[in-house]
Amino acid sequence: MNGINLVLASLFILITILVTSLVSQPNRWKVLLVTGLLFYYWLIGDKIIIVLILSGITYVSGCMIHSGKNVVLLSVLLLLVPLLLLKISGAGDHFNNYQLKVDIASNNWGSLFQIIGLSYFTFNGISYLIDIKRRYISPEKNFFFLLLYLTYFPTIFSGPLHRANYLLGQFKNIEVNDHSISRGLRLILWALFKNLVIAQRIFALINRLQHSEIAGGYYLIIGLLFFLYLYCNFSSFIDFFQGVSLIFNIRLKHNFRNRVYFSASRQEFWRGWHTTLNQWFRDYFFFVLSRYDKKGKYLDVILLITFLLIALWHGFSTVMIVWGTLNGLWIVIEKKFEFEKWKYPRVRKVSGVIYHLSIAACLAIIFISPSASFLYNKVFVQAAELPSNFREQYLVSLLVISGSLVIMDYHYAKAKDMRFEDYLDTKRPILRWLIYAKLVIIILIFGLSTGIDNYYIQF
After folding, report:
1. How many CB atoms lie within 10 A of CB 141?
2. Is 393 exposed, middle or buried, given 0-12, 13-18 or 19+ CB atoms closer than 10 A?
3. Which residue spans traverse the membrane (predicted)?
4. Which of 209, 233, 394, 458 matches a 20 to 30 Å C-alpha distance to 44?
5. Is cis: bond before 160, omega within 30 of 0?
6. Contact 446/438 with Cβ under 8 angstroms?
7. CA distance 18 to 181
8. Phi, psi for 3 (deg, rounded to 5)
9. Each residue's pLDDT tens digit, 240-271
């Protein structure tokens, strides 16, 4: 597991708040830049030089594109090369033993570019250059201001992805006050509850089950657990850094729809899951190719290719190719049957949730399987078997996880479409403090770690 030490993260936040409060507003973005780069350096060391070089390429390319020079394709390729070398080599990947690896010369270039947040840095840089080409924005004149956008520490680790015109304006209005600190800390508390109590307990349970004799149809339990784990883990990590950003009065985009885990179709799921990444592929790949298909004959093919690229972003492996293809086919099939237009919406919703969770559990197993042969042997060859004394052995973990999931879902159901920090604003102060106390007590009793883990940081 990869993550951030809470003590060091808290120390960094406190120092940044203190220094920010001591300088005038026009200079506060410089504090975020310096402290953010120091935090980034603490995580990746001397490899930060590569990030600075790529930032320089982005800055110069943006100016050249704006002046009319046709260097968009070359600039995008230059930004993509390190990420492609990393993905092709399989360095740092979760699926190390089963990669379609390519030996690039005799050097491990993949390890050279094994940089936390490289994917998000690259995608933000590409969107910045393409938006300049499309005349949506003008290039940033101040290199260091652009560097802050590209390396902004709350987003560099796992998103959300942001367009330059969304963040740059907010960097000019940084403000730390009682309200911003309150809203930021409440979101950080919510993130700790989801990560330390739910996600890490599910992760521990998955590990124990994977080393047990579980097989056959029962193996789907691991898929369902991983599906829930991935949501709680990934969304909590983003919640944490959204909270950090809110402290400085910078509002990051919402990356997950509330209760996305209860989606009634795959289309509904993808509209609410890691939305900024999906929107990036939609705007900078799917729509670009779609313009050449004026009659709409090949939209399904373009959709399949888009999901394949999303899968390969996770890693160059046969497992990822299968996972991406199945996701794309699932969407295409749903569109053909127009599942979301069926009659009896209440029945469709309940049956849809069951249908989606069942197939999502199958895809989750594929996502984490070391190979297709391993998965086939586990599910179809070995006899269906649960670990002995399953209930007794895992009862405490299951009770804590189930109870915590109920609490999480209760608040999301009450919030509806509101973000969690906005939802708490609607509560009376006494109710807010009761929620805070409840979450703190649960974390202290049932939390498993002093660090906030992020499964997606490897991508």
Report:
1. 10
2. middle
3. 40-59, 71-89, 109-130, 142-161, 187-206, 218-238, 301-332, 353-374, 394-412, 433-452
4. 233
5. yes
6. no
7. 12
8. -170, -170
9. 999 999 999 999 998 999 999 999 999 999 99
74-84 per-position pLDDT tens digit: 999 999 998 88
Tell me how far apart the alpha carbons of residues 370 and 215 are, in angstroms, rounded to a whole number.
15
CB 458 within 8 A of CB 93: yes
Find out whether 451 and 5 touch, Cβ atoms under 8 Å: yes
Element (H, E) at 49: helix 48-66
How much is the average pLDDT of 398-412? 96
The residues, ordered by sequence, that sit 6+ positions from 166 with a Cβ below 8 Å of its Cβ are 253
Angle at 431 between CA 428 and CA 437, to 5 degrees: 140
Please provide the distance, in angstroms rounded to a whole number, between the alpha carbons at the two ends of the chain. 12
**Residue 299: other Cβ atoms inside 10 A:** 15
Q: What is the pTM of this model?
A: 0.89
- Check if the beta carbon of residue 330 is closer than 8 Å to that of residue 266: yes
Give the amino acid at 105: A
Task: Work out the mean pLDDT of the chain and round it to a whole number.
Answer: 87
- Tokens for 146, please give them: 């652009």
- Are 366 and 326 spatial neighbours (Cβ–Cβ below 8 Å)? yes
| Longest CA pairwise span in the chain (Å) | 70
All structural domains of the chain with their residue ranges: 3-176, 179-458
Q: At residue 318, what is the residue type?
A: T
Q: Distance (Å, rounded) from C-alpha 3 to C-alpha 350?
A: 36
Q: Which two tokens stand for residue 57?
A: 């390429």
At 98, list the tokens: 């089963």
Closest residue by Cα to residue 353 from 217, 416, 275, 259:
259
Separation of alpha carbons 198 and 201, rounded Å: 5
Judge contact between 21 and 178, C-beta under 8 A.
Answer: no
Does 371 or 124 have the greater pLDDT score?
124
Per the model's pLDDT, the better-predicted residue between 404 and 372 turns out to be: 404
The stretch 413-430 carries a mean pLDDT of 94
Give the type of residue at 411.
H
**Span 52-70, average pLDDT:** 95
Residues 6+ apart with CB under 8 A from 355: 264, 265
Residues 200 and 453 sit within 8 Å (Cβ to Cβ): yes
Q: How far is CA 131 from its chain centroid?
A: 23
Which residues fall within 8 angstroms of residue 4, CB to CB, at 6 or more apart?
157, 240, 451, 452, 454
Q: How far apart are CA 424 and CA 406, in angstroms?
A: 18
**Joined tokens for residue 128:** 């910045």
